[in-house]
Specification:
Layout lengths: L2 H11 L38 E3 L32 E2 L4 E5 L8 E5 L7 E3 L9 E3 L7 E5 L6 E5 L5 E7 L4 E7 L5 E6 L3 E4 L4 E10 L2 E8 L4 E6 L3 E5 L2 E4 L4 E6 L3 H6 L2 E13 L2 E12 L6 E5 L1 H4 L4 H4 L2 E7 L5 E7 L1 E7 L23 H14 L4 H5 L4 H21 L3 H19 L7 E4 L4 E4 L15 H18 L1 H23 L13 E2 L4 E2 L12 E2 L2 H18 L2 H21 L11 H4 L6 E3 L2 E3 L12 H5 L9 H4 L2 H12 L9 H10 L4 H9 L14 H10 L2
């Protein structure tokens, strides 16, 4: 499809719709570099010259181009089109308002409660297809007198923070934007504050002093109370405007609490990410770089439910009784900390190459002679296909699936069948197919974008699922990296042959998606959001509901591919990051994307869908971008299953898989006519490997009932190992 059609698809999915830094007392120190897994770069050199340098047609608005700009994170909307689509720092939403018809120019913000959510298509139904939060309710607008001709610029780009500047010839407002920030903080330079409200101020009163700050309480006409702290005097000018007496700093938070009093005056301007992994225990921390001072020496930050479950004791001690609803991820809690530390146990350090599930009753995967006979027959048949021709197509995504399919066939022939003849037949052809991409000789070669800084397709933006606009890079490149890892496991020398040809290809893709730190060529962790606990696939297309992700399974497939590559490449820090990512995904996805009946995070009328469909920052829609299914909703479920690999059983519990099967899939499975049936049947092995194996082993086999990225060879090998 073309660019316009792709952008329209995104829009249809939107249903509506000069301050001196002070070090704060008590600020904790970050980890030593020797221990920090985020201080171990994948590589630092310029990408290989075979990737032609290009400038992107879409220029990030309000940004200096001398550093990588995030393309898939929370603030990216502010860099796109007219910069007016909202962003979500959680729990607050903010957006740039500058249209002539608007009452006040500036940065608007709001918070919505769970009771405000809109469910559809029938709001009265007990079973909802989607829900979203009402957008653009202007509880407040940070503005000033004669604040037209505004420019919004962004500075100090990081994965979880950025600094916004709203300015014109009169002066500017500096607004640090950090994920989970407790206050909306605005520093007014050379101009006097106007804090406007489209909702309107019903009550406004000063509530005394908090150290050197004046404290105000505001009740809006929607009966919601907010607290305002400022180092200048504020007065109510009219029901829609509060004005300041001079330039100064203003902080606003929803509700009233002594915890706001304890932390007002201090605010984060940056967030540093660090972490350690020791055995199967992983720790990750958000260190807030602070300006100002508070009476407690700490700031206030909001944490999501998957953080709350694993907050380390020294952070848990500072948990408050403050709670606010997030948009799509349950109730957030506030912590008085300068460093939020989470500790995950049970990292999948022992899940590597062979099939694995929670329900395996044997120490390691084994195969019966009967199973090996069937696997061999399937491999011989599938090896007749044109590996190179099937893979050398115009899509990084689909070609990656094909490469991964045949890499698994080669892996099975070598390690499970232990058949040198079969391995010798398939392995060279898979290598040849991969090397076309490693040499960058595919139909649409990859190029290095010097604008945003990244590795993108040379196809037009609407092609290949928007790869050239940074859509889905972890999905696309994950398949390629996984295929390379399987082949390098068979032949380790191949990875570094021809002057590191394949190694350099894989490394560049990994740097594009998952660099542990930003460098001059790539941003930090383009896809995976360490705050949300999963990745965002949505690239540089503006969206009224924020970033989104469709396929949870292709998300963790990338992390699994990264892990396997680290094993063949000998990168211990990469392996630790991958294992930590997988542990975080296991927790977050089973709260926010994969729903057992006892899920307490998502709305009760939505968890009946069993899977999220598409998870946006502001809504969840039980759908896909390409449809629902030919029979029922099988595409929605299948996109959260593929591909099935040893890591699938770590993320997807037998309990969840059986509930999903019984409630959503059992009634339609026999009528599904195409490859989606194979995807669903392979996933069934996670709770019922016997019937799954029997389906793949049957004599009346129909090749058109498995996906083009699947092989019967791997499906038989996987399911029979679990018996």
């Amino acid at each position: 499809m073309g660019l316009r059609e792709l952008k329209n698809k995104f829009k249809r999915m939107d249903i509506h719709h000069d301050q001196t830094p002070l070090s704060a007392p008590g600020n904790q120190s970050s980890l030593a570099n020797d221990d920090d897994i985020f201080q171990k770069p994948i590589a630092t050199k310029e990408p290989p010259p075979l990737f032609k340098k290009v400038q992107h047609n879409a220029i990030p608005k309000g940004c200096s181009l001398n550093q990588p700009i995030q393309t898939n994170n929370f603030y990216n909307n502010l860099t796109l089109e007219d910069q007016t689509c909202p962003i979500w720092t959680m729990p607050y939403s903010l957006w740039f308002t500058k249209e002539e018809k608007e009452q006040d120019f500036g940065l608007a913000f709001n918070h919505t409660e769970a009771q405000q959510r809109v469910f559809g298509p029938d709001p009265a139904s007990s079973h909802a297809q989607y829900f979203f939060n009402p957008p653009r309710i202007k509880s407040f607008v940070l503005s000033s007198e004669n604040f037209g001709n505004l420019r919004l610029t962004l500075h100090e780009h990081r994965k979880m923070s950025v600094t916004a500047r709203l300015e014109n010839d009169q002066g500017c407002i500096v607004i640090p934007l950090c994920m989970g920030m407790g206050f909306i903080t605005a520093i007014y330079d050379r101009i006097q504050p106007i804090i406007a409200s489209q909702v309107g101020y019903q009550e406004f009163k000063q509530c005394g002093q908090v150290d050197s700050l004046k404290k105000y309480s505001v009740k809006l006409f929607n009966q919601v109370t907010w607290s305002i702290y400022s180092d200048i005097e504020l007065i109510l000018k009219n029901p829609n405007q509060i004005v300041g007496s001079s330039p100064g700093t203003v902080q606003i938070a929803r509700g009233e609490s002594c915890h706001y009093d304890d932390t007002a005056g201090c605010y984060p301007v940056k967030i540093d990410l660090s972490g350690t992994v020791n055995g199967d225990i992983g720790e990750y921390r958000f260190t807030y770089i602070l300006n100002g001072r508070s009476r407690s020496g700490k700031t206030l930050v909001w944490a999501l439910p998957h953080h709350q479950e694993v907050v380390k004791s020294d952070s848990a001690a500072d948990c408050t009784d403050l709670q606010l609803d997030s948009t799509t991820k349950g109730v957030m809690k506030a912590y008085k900390v300068n460093e939020l530390i989470m500790q995950e146990h049970g990292l999948p350090i022992d899940i590597k190459w062979d099939p694995w599930t929670e329900t395996m009753h044997k120490a390691k995967a084994t195969w019966s002679n009967e199973a090996k006979h069937l696997i061999r027959q399937a491999a011989i048949e599938e090896m007749k296909q044109d590996v190179v021709g099937m893979a050398n197509i115009d899509s990084m995504y689909t070609s990656g699936k094909i490469l991964d399919k045949f890499a698994y066939v080669a892996y099975v022939c070598h390690y499970i069948l232990e058949d040198d003849q079969l391995t010798g037949e398939i392995l060279p052809r898979v290598k040849q197919a991969i090397e076309i991409f490693a040499k960058n000789q595919q139909k649409f070669p990859l190029v290095f974008d010097t604008t945003w800084k990244g590795l993108i397709s040379s196809a037009e933006p609407g092609a290949d699922f928007g790869n050239s606009n940074y859509n889905d890079h972890h999905f696309h490149y994950g398949y390629h990296i996984h295929a390379i890892s399987l082949i390098a496991k068979i032949d380790p020398d191949w990875l570094h042959a021809n002057d590191n040809l394949v190694y350099n290809y894989a490394i560049t893709m990994l740097r594009d998606v998952a660099s542990p730190q930003a460098d001059e060529f790539f941003p930090q962790s383009r896809s995976f959001c360490w705050f949300h606990g999963h990745s965002f696939a949505h690239g540089i297309f503006a969206s009224g509901d924020g970033k989104d992700e469709e396929s949870s399974s292709e998300d963790y497939h990338f992390a699994y591919a990264m892990k396997l590559f680290s094993l063949v490449a000998g990168d211990e820090a990469m392996e630790k990051r991958a294992n930590l990512m997988l542990a975080i995904m296991k927790r977050s996805m089973n709260m926010y994307m994969l729903y057992t009946d006892d899920n307490k995070i998502e709305p009760s009328q939505f968890i009946k869908n069993k899977v999220a469909g598409i998870s946006f920052e502001n809504k969840i829609d039980y759908a896909t971008y390409f449809g629902r299914g030919t029979i029922g909703d099988e595409w929605i479920h299948g996109i959260h299953m593929l591909p099935t690999t040893p890591i699938s059983g770590y993320i997807r519990s037998p309990k969840f898989c059986k509930e999903e099967w019984d409630q959503k899939l059992a009634g339609i499975i026999d009528r599904i006519p195409d490859g989606w049936k194979g995807i669903l049947m392979l996933n069934k092995a996670l709770f019922d490997p016997k019937s799954s194996y029997e389906w793949f082993a049957r004599r009346d086999w129909q090749p058109d009932q498995i996906d083009n990225g699947m092989s019967r060879t791997w499906s038989l090998a996987y399911t029979s190992a679990l018996l």
